[in-house]
Specification:
It contains two helices and two strands. The protein has helices at residues 2-28, 52-73, and strands at 39-42, 47-50. The longest helix is centred in the N-terminal third of the chain and has 27 residues, at 2-28.
Length: 75
């Protein structure tokens, strides 16, 4: 049970950190979502936004962060 509690604690802290990063990300990175390669289509009654480049950057950053954390906690 102790391992489950520890895992839940780390998952909760990770979600809290992710939420804080998303909340502060809009202030510190206003260009995120407006990169070249992000597709924005606006019609009369519709708006479509596909952030391809932004999601690639977020994915790469997330992969790097998770790899560092996994290597840190395996010690």
């Amino acid at each position: 049970m102790a391992e489950l509690g520890r895992a839940m604690l780390f998952i909760g802290l990770g979600i809290a950190v992710l939420g804080a990063l998303l909340w502060l990300g809009a202030r510190f990175f206003p260009w995120l979502g407006n990169l070249p390669g992000d597709i924005r289509i606006e019609g009369e009654n519709t708006k479509v936004f596909i952030p391809i480049t932004t999601m690639i950057i977020v994915s790469i950053a997330g992969t790097i962060i998770l790899n560092v954390l996994i290597r840190f906690f395996r010690r």
